[in-house]
Amino acid sequence: MQYADSSALVTRSWQRCHQTGLHPTDQANDQIITGKRIKEIIKENQALIQYTVPIFEKLFPFIHQMGHIAMLVDRQGNIIHTIGDPDFADHAQRVQLQVGANWEESRKGTNAIGTALVESRPVRIHAEQHFFRENQFLTCAAAPIYDADGEFLGVVNVSGQKEGFHPYILSLASLAADSLQNKLLLETSKHEHLLTLKELDQISASHQTPLVSLDRDRRIVRANAAAVGILGKDCLGKEFVGKKGYTTQTISDQTSKMWRSVALHKKADTPDQRGLLTSFSRLAGSCKRIVQTKELALKAALTHYPVLLLGESGTGKEVVAQSIHQASTRATQPFIAVNCSAIPDNLVESEMFGYESGAFTGANREGSIGKFEAAKQGTIFLDEIGDMSLRAQAALLRVLQEKVITPVGSTRTRPVHARVIAATHRNLPEEIKAGRFRADLYYRLKGIQINLPSLRERSDVIELAEHLLRQINEDDAPVPVLAPDAQKLLRSYQWPGNVRELQSVLMQAAFLADGGEIEAHHLQLDLPDLAAYDDNQPILSLREAEIAAIQKSLAASGGNVSKAAKLLQIGRNTLYRKMEEYRISNTANMGSV
Ligand SMILES: Nc1ncnc2c1ncn2[C@@H]1O[C@H](COP(=O)(O)OP(=O)(O)OP(=O)(O)O)[C@@H](O)[C@H]1O
User: Fold this and answer.
1) Atom 18 of ligand 1, residue of closest alpha carbon
2) What is the 3-state secondary structure (H, E, C) of 30-49?
3) Cα end-to-end distance, the chain, whole Å
4) DSSP-derived secondary structure letter, 390
5) Cβ contact 65:172 at 8 Å
6) Which end of the chain has fewer beta carbons closer than 10 Å to its terminal beta carbon, N or C?
């Protein structure tokens, strides 16, 4: 789905409002449909509401946690079904954000529902972007819904108070609209051949699974937006011959279960509210990369696909795994983390799959259940999967393929219900090339692949640092403030240990600052030259240490700034900036870069 450039879209909408003669300080022309007419409208949209109810129930924990409400709106802009936070619903009624109200743009000015209806695309309208002042306390996102034949049916809208702004409410609305569309597509293509396309090289960050339905002659009868994006706008009616770079998978009974689970989980399965509060909110950060990561993790939480988390050490892979678990319908079941690199090779099977009594010398007399069984219908988190031996990989692959385990010393298999989330800091395609990792296992594990950005790639280091400082500060003492020089240093440092390193540096700094402002000299960073520090030499100030490190790296690289920056593990521009700041001239090689 295409997200619109919000500023251009808002400008267009405001122009339409002015042209219609609306004025921001006017009161909206509210029209609440009640009685017979609303009953008729609800009846006309009964099927749509019926499909929406379970999807909204699935979203309820997220919506409620955010203090928002979700709405189903028909193509005329009438709200026909809502779910969400009752407190906010009371506020919302002040501006008639309730069943029976009409939110067409010509009536209610620029707003997510009305503007999405006009623009036929997902729209987010935040606070002052609303045309009428009376609506500016809101933050809203709406995404259009189309039926399997591409007919426009209405929108899904998520709204809350502007203070509760979440960057991913648009994704949430789009996700609900996508699930609804897929459900409609599945219903209408019961007699057709329904298949999905899977990227061979990489699972894209797109929010929707591509779905295509074929008639008996393999002509494409229907396709959802994701499939049209891959196959081209004119794909309908054409013979389906596959697509380079993609495999196809028929949606069998088993895979359609996955869809039902996306769309139809009953409220009884919804996760624990408190769990949710600590789930995605633990993942601090608002830079683009981390928001994308959270969106994808949220999507993963709503499915039962295996998840593969890739990222350097300390980037938060385990936090993401826990967040996915807590936000999923499995939250009330166990989350079992297994560090694959810590299990001796000869114990992998018994640790993972358990053993029967007397299976081997030293084994517990009663036998023991393995991690897969301990996870029950919850999540098993296989950390450091890239460090598993090939023998253990083969055993794991069998489990993932056959969905059963055989405890050591037993002949009886037991079913596996747990969802697998795997993680590694290794580059698995390279491990495969080197013959250290099985390609078939890799493809099994990467149902949804989430790449976690390193701290170097993130633009929100200070925000993250402030979040971590609040966490570190256990008692009610004031949270230490980061002085400008400390912020500068935190931004320019290369963070080989990522968030874990940032956490420990801040912990030390808070201790050293002793309740005062944290300054640059409180930050004990692992600067390269400190490794070479000799006991007999005086301790250098941070500035002196940086100067010495830069001079040494320039000398070692023969004046080549790129090489010197590499040695220092910083970017070339950062090195140039520091050379300028410390007035270091490149005497080793004046002409070189
Ligand atoms: N976005 C984040 N917000 C807040 N804390 C975070 C974030 N990312 C990571 N952390 C914290 O950083 C530390 C390291 O995270 P975690 O253990 O999840 O990393 P990892 O990638 O699994 O590391 P490894 O590969 O070494 O196992 C944890 O204490 C975690 O709470």
Assistant:
1) 316
2) CCECCHHHHHHHHHHCHHHH
3) 44
4) H
5) no
6) C
Write down the pTM of the prediction. 0.51
| Residue 569 in tokens | 């593990």
Q: Are 27 and 50 in contact (CB under 8 A)?
A: no
Within 152-279, residue ranges assigned H as helices are: 169-188, 225-231, 253-264, 273-279
CB 425 near ligand 1, within 6 Å: yes
Cβ of 315 less than 6 Å from ligand 1: yes
Taking Cα atoms as reference points, which of 426, 420, 425 lies closest to residue 446?
A: 420
How would residue 131 be classed by pLDDT, with cut points 50, 70 and 90?
Answer: very high
Sign of CA dihedral 52, 54, 57, 63: negative
By most ligand atoms within 8 Å of CB, the mutation choice from 279, 313, 500 for ligand 1 is 500
Return d(Cα 149, Cα 188) in angstroms, integer: 9
**Mean model confidence pLDDT for the chain:** 80
How far is it, in rounded angstroms, from Cα 118 to Cα 579? Answer: 54
The CB of 316 under 6 Å from ligand 1? The reply is yes
C-beta of 311 in contact with ligand 1 (< 6 A): yes
Q: What is the ipTM of this complex?
A: 0.97
Average pLDDT of the residues in 92-116: 88
Q: At 459, list the tokens.
A: 């633009």
Residue 318 in contact with ligand 1 by CB distance below 6 A:
yes
**Tokens 């924990």 label which residue?**
61
210 lines ligand 1 (CB under 6 A): no
How many of the other CB atoms lie within 10 Å of CB of 141?
28
Best of 278, 280, 308, 318 for a ligand 1 pocket test (most atoms within 8 Å of beta carbon): 318
Q: CA separation (Å) from 498 to 290, 494, 521, 570?
A: 13, 8, 20, 14
Among the atoms of ligand 1, which is closest to the Cα of residue 322?
18
Give the per-residue pLDDT at 274.
Answer: 35
Ligand 1 mutation pick, 499, 502, 503, 505, max ligand atoms within 8 A of CB: 499
Mean pLDDT of 24-40: 80
Assess whether pLDDT exceeds 90 at residue 427.
Answer: yes
Residue at token pair 């002409």: 591
pLDDT given for residue 187 in this prediction: 73
Q: Is 385 in the pocket of ligand 1 (CB under 6 A)?
A: no
Q: Give me the domains of the chain, ranges plus CATH numbers.
A: 6-184 (3.30.450.40), 190-264 (no CATH), 273-451 (3.40.50.300), 456-526 (1.10.8.60), 529-581 (1.10.10.60)
* Tokens coding 470: 């609040």
Is the pLDDT at 2 greater than 50? The verdict is no
CA distance 293 to 163: 23
pLDDT of residue 570: 83
Structure token digits, residue 158: 């998520």
> Residue 575 has which token pair?
């090195």
276 or 178, greater pLDDT: 178
Give, for ligand 1, the residue of 294, 319, 466 to mutate: max count of ligand atoms closer than 8 Å to Cβ: 319
